[in-house]
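Handout for the seminar on molecular recognition.
Each group receives one record of this type.
Step one: identify the two inputs.
Step two: read the structure output and locate the region that could contact BES.
Step three: write two sentences on what you found, then compare them with the reference statements printed after the record.
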Amino acid sequence: MEFSIKAAAPEKHKTDCLILVCFASGEPGPQLAAIDAASNGLLGKLLKRDLDEKAGSLLALPTLPGTAAERVLIASLGKRAEFNDKALRSALAAIGKWLASSKAKSAALCATDLIAGGLALPATLRTATALLMDACYRFESVRAKPEDKPAGPARLEFVLQGKSDAAARLAVEQGAAIAAGQSLARDLGNLPANYCTPSTLADTAKSLAREYKLKLKVYDREGIEELGMGSFLAVAQGTREEPRFIVLEYKGGKAKDAPVVLVGKGITFDSGGISLKPGEGMDEMKFDMCGAASVLGCFRTIAKLSLPINLVGLIPATENLPSGTAVKPGDVVTSLSGQTIEILNTDAEGRLILCDALTYAERFKPACVVDIATLTGACIIALGHHTSGLLANDDDLAAELLKAGQASGDRAWQLPLFDEYQEQLKSNFADMANIGGRPAGTITAACFLSRYAKAYKWAHLDIAGTAWKSGADKGATGRPVPLLAEFLLKRAGL
Ligand code: BES
Ligand code: MN
Ligand code: ZN
């Protein structure tokens, strides 16, 4: 979908679909008022009769006399007194969903009315662009024939009453870049594990590196052995599929600027290993690389925007399978940090690959490190599917990420990393066990990681509940690309 901004009188604007928003009560915005007048008050009457109050309710008119548009779609912003960011997002999500299945080839959204509730224009345009583009995402790369109907209009214009400025245009560009990153993350997540292997993740990094002139180093099994990543290798030893350790660098900042390091869990299929998972729903463990996918997605966003920051992406990638060569419960392995680990459960494999990547991160002398992982089922029990878990060894970094989540509508919530929980990782045979028992599973997993992240400011995002949806809408969400993109935009001073 191509986005642009246009100054035009909405009633005279030619488009396949004119989109308007309105509050359930009070004065209409100037653009809605203009269309109402052009229709001789018909629009107002129809809205009063047929549009529900709730934010996100829609009324689609196949035609409206007095306007140049083929169709008109009106979305409710809810009650004016209750208007907020969430109401705006509900309305935009509903519009996006409608557009995705409509036959309109072009659409024009009256954006002056969109900010009648008092939100800033640039922020609103950024949100609208990202949300509408994401709503028209479609995955069909493993179907024999693609659908012949396009997913959503090819062009979307934001119609403004006055002239647009550079800030508005930049905001649209940013929204489109966020959606492009999110769409890459969704594509990789949705690909089945026989298509998306560790090598596929490395190839994706390679094409990003080629397109945006990034620095890339990819280690194979032998290279990972030479690095000394004994913990990562313990997970990889059960599969014949080649593991990869991906190191991607974007240098948009000054040479001496300390980089932000993103570490993404890249388990392309998690069977649990010898501690085999139950069969039901096991297909969803193809999504266990969504942390890695979000890192690659972020690189796409950040490189598209040429952000003035330095960014490093680290992705340990492997399958977790049972076999005659697989690691066994009770085995003790030595991590890159030198600390030894008793693997009591081979299904707690995410932390085993991440810990070595966290140690590797030290060499970049990072400004901060954020790891992103579908790490624990316990996080779904704690926070469900709406909110990512956040744990950190630095309160300012945690606050920064929480704020980015709030601003992007891709929210996280902090859980404590109190010392008391570390005791659950005690092992009788090694420096630590890889599991901490049933209580506080998300916290003990983060406690494990924290032992490898002492050299820098570090935060961990547990996205087990937010990275994909189950049921009828099964599929990757591309989260937390919006949160991370917002975080990095703010770091870049934008
Ligand atoms: N990838 C899973 C976590 C997961 C489970 C994400 C379900 C989304 C849905 C992770 O590798 C795992 O298996 N974790 C175990 C840890 C346990 C053995 C301590 C879990 O959560 O059960
Ligand atoms: Mn597992
Ligand atoms: Zn896993």
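Reference statements: The chain has two domains: 2-160, 178-491. DSSP finds 15 helices and 20 strands in the chain.
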